[in-house]
Amino acid sequence: MLAADNLTKNGTESKQLKFDLSVYLKERQQLVEAALNKSIPVVYPEKIYESMRYSLLAGGKRLRPILCLATCEMTGGNIEIAMPTACALEMIHTMSLIHDDLPAMDNDDYRRGKLTNHKVYGDDVAILAGDGLLAYAFEYVVANTKEVPASQVLQVISRLGRAVGAAGLVGGQVVDLEMEGKTDVSLETLNFIHNHKTAALLEASVVCGGILSGTSLEDLQRLSKYSQNIGLAFQIVDDILDITATQEQLGKTAGKDLEAQKVTYPSLWGLEESKKQAQLLVEAACAQLEPFGEQAKPLIALAYFITSRNN
Fold it and tell me: What is the dihedral of CA 63, 66, 70, 72, to 10 degrees?
């Protein structure tokens, strides 16, 4: 049984919200895996669809789609209306992993314990597989989201586009590449990189769940703050694990940041301060969920899971 500490109203009492996250994650992962498996059939030309499916179905925590589903349910929606967007988020995330692993980027041979896409299908097909997943993600949301007003679907498309483009993931990746090998990278620049490269898609995952349920602007702002905090916490923990975890635990090459001479949160703060900062971010994130009461238990538990994971 996993427990998450929730900061209570007025700050006078502390309260434990007990929630079995392991069971919740297993159930939601199974739902997401089944939906992803159905989302892309293999048709002619088979190679590109096989390459797309190879990376999309390679496993992983499925954190982004689960965050989308959990938020939609918390704010009054249901799994059915959120699942197409949840799948699209994983397609976009998978695209970013395929491209990030390429020789021109991070040049990694393993992802989720398997050979990276370009090692199996070649650089050319891997690039196209990422392109295919990105384009299909938007089509999939529009074609499969049912019983949601078109204006809300448009907001989801807009959020996804911003999260993945130059104002989001792409912009963060560019600055990340520019900073490789530099030793004078500021905390402000490092935060910019990861607010865009990592946190933007996590924020879209959470906020899109709220948009689909038709939640209020005030609640969307709370969800945005929650997800920005967990996004940075997620990256800090990633940086820590790159130093402390093994390749078997990570499912990808360990020590890549040090080898690439990247400035990371541990390189600026040290390991212990990095752990402390990640914990503070999670606590701040959970404080945003107080108005949702008991319904927030999954998102609170997921926030604490981010800082306790080992891969």
Answer: 120
Question: Which tens digit of pLDDT belongs to each residue from 197-254?
Answer: 999 999 999 999 999 999 999 999 999 999 999 999 999 999 999 888 766 655 656 5
Q: Per the structure block, which two tokens stand in for 36?
A: 């992803």
Q: Which helix (H) or strand (E) holds 37?
A: helix 21-39
Sign of the dihedral defined by the CA atoms of residues 75, 78, 79, 83, in that order:
negative
Give all strands (DSSP E) within the chain, no chain letters. 2-7, 14-19, 110-111, 114-115
Do residues 236 and 98 lie in contact, with contact meaning Cβ atoms separated by under 8 Å?
no
**pLDDT tens across 2-12, in order?**
444 443 333 32
What are the residue ranges of helices labelled H in 122-168? 123-144, 150-164
Q: Is the pTM of this model over 0.85?
A: yes
Residues 64 and 90 sit within 8 Å (Cβ to Cβ)? yes
Longest dimension (CA), the chain: 63
